Amino acid sequence: MKCNLCKINEADKTGSHFLTLSFIKTAINEAGRGERDREIVFKLTSGKDLDIEPYFGRKILPEAIDKVLNSEVKFDDFIKNHNPFVEDYLFCTECENRFAIIEGYFISNLYLKIKSNLLETERDSKGNRVIKIDSQKGLLTRLFFYVQLWRTSISKHSFKLDEKIENSLRKIIFNCLEKNIDATLDKCKENKLEILSHPLTVTYWETEIHTENKFENTTNLIYFHDKSKRPYFVIINDFVIRLYRNKRHLNTTPNHFFGFTDLIDTTEHINIDQDEFTIGVLVDSHRRKILDGVIGQPVEMFFKNWKKRIKEFHIQIFGFTPTEYVLKGILLEIIYSDEITLDKYNSEYVIKVISKVFYELSQKGEYDFKFFEKTI
Ligand SMILES: [Zn+2]
């Protein structure tokens, strides 16, 4: 198979991360470690068979998995051979090396500086901080995000750009990526009009909090909105990206995006045709609010799915359909047992909750405890 970028060489690379690993590692890795095979990924899907499916890299310690899952699980049970952000034979070695140039540049020159609050900020009309970077850095920033979106789109991931924009991004990436950053920047300047033609907002949100000298990562996500195309809406760890196909789409009715659109004034944050590049900054409390919304939608579907399964499970064990009261009891137990985090929506945990509620009901005399004990 030919390389998806150059379409000339054979795609010989295995294990290509279509999202830059160092960019997403705090969303998926054990704290403090950044190696491959140490990823912890929660794959959030909203398809028919909704599930929040954990993926664990091969070297993760079983204790760490237990901690994440908040339950006693067997390590081998959760080892999956397929990492959702890695794919083989997408690119050739040469193109993969060219990707590394822009990835390395963005991570060291912008990402780490933004995370460490080293860049100057202004305030926008809504009181959010805004980082303004110069045209050169802006072109390279765009290129970096185009690489993330385009690589995901051409992979087996469910996120797909329209063919026209996918081809346009491929052309930009192919024409601009060179063997070093200076040559890449020169190419970006040559292709400036094409690069700037896609309206784009980039918003960074604080994902780390400092508490009493303790440095902790907060829960984060990798999320591709599967319905919206005007604009495409993507959360990659601590960045929210909205990409429009063209200027006309800026005038379409804005999607709410879990409250994101209310927090960010698109006309102030949009990058289109201008030299200066704007990166918005959202505070942690806003991030949490939006993530609650993002998680809430699939979770709602998740509950519908589980309601059906709880019923089946109940009939299997007790021989009759549970009352709405029992069903509600189990679902409420899942929702309110702790702060909302993804790890509590895994199957093991839910089964634990079901068992607990059944047990409690049996203690109240509503179920035959002996029968329950035997069956579970
Ligand atoms: Zn290639």
Task: List the SSEs and their pairings.
Blueprint: E1 16-17, H1 21-28, E2 40-44, E3 52-56, H2 62-69, H3 75-78, E4 86-87, H4 93-115, E5 121-123, E6 129-133, H5 135-154, H6 163-176, H7 181-190, H8 192-196, E7 200-205, E8 208-211, E9 214-217, E10 222-224, E11 232-236, E12 239-243, H9 260-263, H10 266-269, E13 277-282, H11 284-318, H12 324-336, H13 347-363, H14 369-375
Describe this structure in words.
The protein has helices at residues 21-28, 62-69, 75-78, 93-115, 135-154, 163-176, 181-190, 192-196, 260-263, 266-269, 284-318, 324-336, 347-363, 369-375, and strands at 16-17, 40-44, 52-56, 86-87, 121-123, 129-133, 200-205, 208-211, 214-217, 222-224, 232-236, 239-243, 277-282. It is α+β, with helices and mostly antiparallel strands. Among the domains are: 95-282, no CATH class; 296-363. A hairpin with a 5-residue loop joins strand 5 (121-123) and strand 6 (129-133). The site of zinc ion has 8 residues, from helix 4.
